[in-house]
Amino acid sequence: MALRAAALAFLLALCPVPDLLAATWVYTANEGDGTVSVIDADAGKKRATIRGLRAPHNIHLGPDGMLYVTDGPANQAIKIDPDKLRIVARWEVGRGPAHIFMTPDQRFIANTNTESGDVTITDASTLQPLTTIPVGKSPHGLAISPDGKFAYVANLSSKDLAVVDLKERKLAAAIPLDDAAVQAWVDPQGKFVYVTGLNSGQVFKIDTATRKMVARLPVGKLPAQLGVTPDGKYLISCDQESAQLSIYDAATDKLVKQLPLGTWTHGISFSPDSKYAFVTNTKSDDVSV
């Protein structure tokens, strides 16, 4: 099944919402025109556009049902009510905010700040920043462990994976990768964290218990975001320059398929039943399913 949702600007991230009013909604952050698109994935149509942002870089559906967005040029994080389709709050974070994530217990919101080289931890109830943690050079991607204890930060320029202890609110480790780390994703069991290596065309598999690299998985050129399906069966990398998805069996680390897709595949998210992946294509300005 392939779906193209036309007239979307510069797409960087997406997030599906299951069974909301008998539809699957996909939200995309459109960095090029300062909007968030609301797409009915079942009908294959864009239903609404949320405005009032400068250049939204990443979007996350929190466990509280709210949308959280980073707005890079504004140095802000933004909260959006997906039912009312409007911005309900903004707050200042670091310089050049990139990725954002809410902890599973809904207590904290973490975001990376690429230009200031740190992570902002915000109280989710008050939206007041609590602390700023230096993590490395050019932090970009962000993932939080299923138990909410650790944040994993992909650093582009220091070429490592930073591990942040969210309880102690401090840097716990920096795992060298020898490549520009773009994005991180923790598997549903919390046993492994996967990181895309931009220049080497690899995904690095890290054991979260030992914090050691246990595998290097070759993918296509300039991989950006990646993800593990909710059922934990497949790891999928968005290979931008190769315009494809690299699909791995997560249990065996064996390549299953490389699937040609849109132009400059970038962001990925999954339906809760793991049957579908939603992929943003930044140069063709559309979404593939």
SSE layout and pairings?
Blueprint: E1 11-20, E2 23-30, E3 35-40, E4 45-50, E5 56-61, E6 67-71, E7 76-81, E8 86-92, E9 97-102, E10 108-113, E11 118-123, E12 129-134, E13 139-144, E14 150-155, E15 160-165, E16 170-176, E17 181-186, E18 192-197, E19 202-207, E20 212-218, E21 223-228, E22 234-239, E23 244-249, E24 254-260, E25 265-270, E26 277-281, E27 286-288
Describe this entry's structure for a reader.
This protein is mainly β. The protein has one domain (11-288): YVTN repeat-like/Quinoprotein amine dehydrogenase (Methylamine Dehydrogenase, Chain H), CATH 2.130.10. Helix content is 0%, strand content 58%. The strands form 7 sheets. It has a 4-stranded antiparallel beta sheet with strand order 1-2-3-4, with no helix packed on it. The chain is globular. The model is unreliable at 1-14 and 16-22 (pLDDT under 50).
In brief, what are we looking at here?
The chain has 289 residues and is mainly β.
- What is the overall pLDDT average? 92
Give the C-level CATH assignment: Mainly Beta
Unreliable stretches (pLDDT < 50, length at least 5) are 1-14, 16-22
Assembly context of the chains: single chain
Number of strands: 27
**What's the domain count?**
1
Q: What's the helix count?
A: 0
Indicate the structural class.
mainly beta
End-to-end separation: 6 Å
Give the overall shape, derived from the CA principal axes: globular
CATH H-level superfamily: YVTN repeat-like/Quinoprotein amine dehydrogenase
Task: Name its key features.
single chain, 289 residues, mainly beta, Methylamine Dehydrogenase, Chain H, four-stranded antiparallel β-sheet, 27 strands, 0% helix, globular, disordered N terminus
